[in-house]
Protein backbone atom coordinates (compact mmCIF):
# COMPACT_ATOMS: atom_id res chain seq x y z
CA UNK A 1 0.00 0.00 0.00
CA UNK A 2 1.33 3.47 -0.79
CA UNK A 3 2.46 5.95 1.82
CA UNK A 4 -0.30 8.29 0.71
CA UNK A 5 -2.95 5.64 1.35
CA UNK A 6 -1.56 5.35 4.88
CA UNK A 7 -1.65 9.16 5.17
CA UNK A 8 -5.33 9.04 4.16
CA UNK A 9 -6.01 6.28 6.69
CA UNK A 10 -4.31 8.13 9.57
CA UNK A 11 -6.56 11.04 8.62
CA UNK A 12 -9.57 8.73 8.93
CA UNK A 13 -8.36 7.87 12.43
CA UNK A 14 -8.11 11.60 13.23
CA UNK A 15 -11.72 11.91 12.07
CA UNK A 16 -12.80 9.17 14.45
CA UNK A 17 -10.73 10.26 17.48
CA UNK A 18 -8.88 13.53 16.98
CA UNK A 19 -6.15 12.95 19.57
CA UNK A 20 -5.54 9.24 19.06
CA UNK A 21 -3.91 9.79 15.68
CA UNK A 22 -1.28 12.32 16.81
CA UNK A 23 -0.55 10.36 20.00
CA UNK A 24 0.19 7.20 18.04
CA UNK A 25 2.13 9.10 15.34
CA UNK A 26 4.20 10.73 18.07
CA UNK A 27 5.02 7.36 19.64
CA UNK A 28 5.92 5.96 16.22
CA UNK A 29 8.29 8.88 15.63
CA UNK A 30 9.76 8.53 19.11
CA UNK A 31 10.35 4.80 18.56
CA UNK A 32 11.98 5.46 15.19
CA UNK A 33 9.24 3.92 13.06
CA UNK A 34 8.43 7.24 11.40
CA UNK A 35 11.47 9.29 10.46
CA UNK A 36 10.64 12.92 11.15
CA UNK A 37 14.16 14.09 11.92
CA UNK A 38 15.33 17.13 9.92
CA UNK A 39 11.72 18.21 9.27
CA UNK A 40 9.53 20.76 11.00
CA UNK A 41 7.69 17.78 12.49
CA UNK A 42 10.71 16.53 14.43
CA UNK A 43 9.14 17.82 17.68
CA UNK A 44 6.64 14.94 17.44
CA UNK A 45 9.43 12.45 18.21
CA UNK A 46 10.04 13.96 21.64
CA UNK A 47 9.05 11.72 24.53
CA UNK A 48 7.42 14.72 26.24
CA UNK A 49 5.20 15.22 23.18
CA UNK A 50 4.28 11.53 23.12
CA UNK A 51 3.34 11.52 26.81
CA UNK A 52 1.32 14.74 26.59
CA UNK A 53 -0.56 13.61 23.47
CA UNK A 54 -1.24 10.23 25.09
CA UNK A 55 -2.70 11.89 28.18
CA UNK A 56 -4.86 14.13 25.99
CA UNK A 57 -5.99 11.14 23.90
CA UNK A 58 -7.02 9.24 27.03
CA UNK A 59 -8.93 12.31 28.19
CA UNK A 60 -10.70 12.46 24.83
CA UNK A 61 -11.67 8.78 25.05
CA UNK A 62 -13.23 9.44 28.46
CA UNK A 63 -14.91 12.71 27.45
CA UNK A 64 -16.43 11.10 24.38
CA UNK A 65 -18.58 8.94 26.65
CA UNK A 66 -20.15 11.96 28.38
CA UNK A 67 -23.64 13.00 27.27
CA UNK A 68 -22.79 16.70 26.88
CA UNK A 69 -19.79 16.18 24.58
CA UNK A 70 -20.31 18.27 21.43
CA UNK A 71 -20.72 16.62 18.05
CA UNK A 72 -17.60 15.91 16.03
CA UNK A 73 -19.39 17.72 13.21
CA UNK A 74 -19.53 21.01 15.13
CA UNK A 75 -17.33 23.67 13.49
CA UNK A 76 -14.67 23.54 16.21
CA UNK A 77 -14.54 19.74 16.37
CA UNK A 78 -14.57 19.32 12.59
CA UNK A 79 -11.86 21.96 12.13
CA UNK A 80 -9.67 20.32 14.76
CA UNK A 81 -10.02 16.94 13.06
CA UNK A 82 -9.06 18.44 9.70
CA UNK A 83 -6.00 20.16 11.22
CA UNK A 84 -4.92 16.99 13.03
CA UNK A 85 -5.52 14.93 9.88
CA UNK A 86 -3.25 17.31 7.96
CA UNK A 87 -0.56 17.12 10.65
CA UNK A 88 -0.60 13.33 10.91
CA UNK A 89 -0.92 12.88 7.15
CA UNK A 90 2.13 15.10 6.67
CA UNK A 91 4.08 13.03 9.21
CA UNK A 92 3.23 9.84 7.32
CA UNK A 93 3.87 11.58 3.98
CA UNK A 94 7.43 12.40 5.04
CA UNK A 95 8.23 8.73 4.47
CA UNK A 96 7.80 9.43 0.73
CA UNK A 97 9.40 12.89 0.94
CA UNK A 98 6.12 14.73 0.46
CA UNK A 99 4.66 16.49 3.46
CA UNK A 100 2.20 18.40 1.26
CA UNK A 101 0.69 15.36 -0.48
CA UNK A 102 0.58 13.54 2.85
CA UNK A 103 -1.16 16.51 4.48
CA UNK A 104 -3.77 16.68 1.71
CA UNK A 105 -4.39 12.94 1.98
CA UNK A 106 -4.69 13.34 5.77
CA UNK A 107 -7.27 16.13 5.36
CA UNK A 108 -9.33 14.03 2.96
CA UNK A 109 -9.14 11.10 5.37
CA UNK A 110 -10.16 13.31 8.30
CA UNK A 111 -13.25 14.52 6.44
CA UNK A 112 -14.15 10.94 5.51
CA UNK A 113 -13.51 9.69 9.05
CA UNK A 114 -15.47 12.49 10.68
CA UNK A 115 -18.55 12.21 8.49
CA UNK A 116 -18.42 8.45 7.94
CA UNK A 117 -17.63 7.73 11.59
CA UNK A 118 -20.53 9.90 12.72
CA UNK A 119 -23.00 8.21 10.39
CA UNK A 120 -21.79 4.72 11.26
CA UNK A 121 -21.94 5.40 14.99
CA UNK A 122 -25.42 6.94 14.86
CA UNK A 123 -26.85 4.13 12.74
CA UNK A 124 -25.23 1.33 14.71
CA UNK A 125 -26.21 2.86 18.05
CA UNK A 126 -29.78 3.18 16.81
CA UNK A 127 -29.76 -0.47 15.67
CA UNK A 128 -28.30 -1.70 18.98
CA UNK A 129 -30.36 0.67 21.11
CA UNK A 130 -27.34 1.92 23.05
CA UNK A 131 -24.48 4.26 22.19
CA UNK A 132 -21.84 3.06 24.66
CA UNK A 133 -20.98 -0.28 23.01
CA UNK A 134 -20.67 1.43 19.64
CA UNK A 135 -18.56 4.24 21.09
CA UNK A 136 -16.22 1.67 22.64
CA UNK A 137 -16.05 -0.23 19.34
CA UNK A 138 -15.15 3.03 17.59
CA UNK A 139 -12.43 3.65 20.21
CA UNK A 140 -10.99 0.19 19.58
CA UNK A 141 -11.04 0.69 15.81
CA UNK A 142 -9.31 4.07 16.13
CA UNK A 143 -6.60 2.81 18.50
CA UNK A 144 -6.01 -0.47 16.70
CA UNK A 145 -6.14 1.14 13.27
CA UNK A 146 -3.67 3.86 14.24
CA UNK A 147 -1.19 1.34 15.59
CA UNK A 148 -1.57 -0.86 12.52
CA UNK A 149 -0.89 2.11 10.24
CA UNK A 150 2.29 3.26 11.97
CA UNK A 151 3.68 -0.26 12.34
CA UNK A 152 3.74 -0.50 8.56
CA UNK A 153 6.80 1.77 8.73
CA UNK A 154 8.64 -0.07 11.51
Notes on the protein architecture:
This protein has helices spanning 3-16, 20-30, 47-63, 75-93, 99-128, 132-151. It is globular. Helix content is 72%, strand content 0%. The relative contact order is 0.23. The model has no long low-confidence stretch (mean pLDDT 95). The longest helix is centred in the C-terminal third of the chain and has 30 residues, at 99-128. The protein has 6 helices and no strands. It is mainly alpha-helical.
Oligomeric state of the chains in view:
single chain
Instruction: Count every beta strand, where a strand is a DSSP E run of 2 or more residues.
Output: 0
- Model regions low in confidence, pLDDT < 50 over at least 5 residues: none
The end-to-end distance, rounded to whole angstroms, is 14 Å
Major sheet: none
Shape: globular
Alpha plus pi helix count: 6
Average pLDDT, all residues: 95
Class computed from helices, strands and strand pairing: mainly alpha
Helix content: over 70%
Indicate the radius of gyration in whole angstroms.
15 Å
The sequence of SSEs as H and E is HHHHHH
Share in β-strands: under 5%
Comma- or semicolon-separated keywords:
154 residues; mainly alpha; 6 helices; 72% helix
Layout of strands and helices, then pairs:
Elements: H1 3-16, H2 20-30, H3 47-63, H4 75-93, H5 99-128, H6 132-151
Helix pairs in contact: 1-4, 1-5, 1-6, 2-3, 2-6, 4-5, 5-6
Can I get a quick summary?
This protein has 154 residues and is mainly alpha-helical.
